[in-house]
Amino acid sequence: MPDHGEGIVKVLAINATYRPKQTTSQLTQSALNGAASLGAQTEMVLLQELDIQYCRNCLTCYQDLESDIAPCSIADDARGVLEKIKQADGVILASPVHSGFVTGLMTAFIERACFTMVRPTGRMLGMQGCPEPRLIDKARAVATIVSAGMIPPELRQYCDLGTPWLLEAAALIANGSPVGDMYACGLFPRQLKNEEWSKAFLLRELTAGQLQEAFDLGVKMATAIRDGQVKPYDPAAFLPPGLGA
């Protein structure tokens, strides 16, 4: 992959799993491997290993309209992750599915990123003061990976409420557009017996096909960046049909 801007293409994955060696991390690493296969520089951040505190709603970030990354009253590791987003050309947000949504760790991080990574100066649906990206230096490709326990793809809508929210949050924070998302449901090496369904989460396995799908997502992200196909955040892209920004 040729140089992009001032350096090599950088793809960052932010992983909100609580089990760093399990399915979500394996899928995320496969996606990064896909991006790396085209020459991208990749990094995975495990939020569990960092000190990410809860937002205190002090509105320090909200009052700063100038900074690329607004100041925060909390001195923890969140700032470092936000700086990595600024340096990245592509951002993958990854999380297990817990109770149909992403983990509390991911929601806590996203809460810290708003309004540190967005300004209340946008306009949407005739309203002013809406959030818009601070990082207007370039558009960044975004994607999401979620790993579910056992709900099959045909029932995804009942289990995966987090992906639409996570995709828009990623696009808004990074000033980008989605290149794709992945839902990895639980698959099993054999037909489970009746008494085994109560421990199905422990019996699930990733398949070669799922790992390949993640790899392909990384390739797709790196290709979109390389070919200049990434567009800045557009709120209209996330509105229900019939509504305009």
Account of the 3D structure:
- There is one protein chain.
- This protein is of the alpha/beta class and 245 residues long.
- It has a single domain (10-227), classed as 3-Layer(aba) Sandwich (Rossmann fold), CATH 3.40.50.360.
- Helices cover 32% and strands 20% of the residues.
- It has a five-stranded parallel beta sheet with strand order 2-1-3-6-7, with helices on both faces. A two-stranded antiparallel ribbon has the order 4-5.
- Strand 1 (10-15), helix 1 and strand 2 (41-46) form a beta-alpha-beta unit.
- The longest helix has 19 residues, at 208-226.
- It is globular, with a radius of gyration of 18 Å.
- The two termini are 35 Å apart.
- The mean pLDDT is 91.
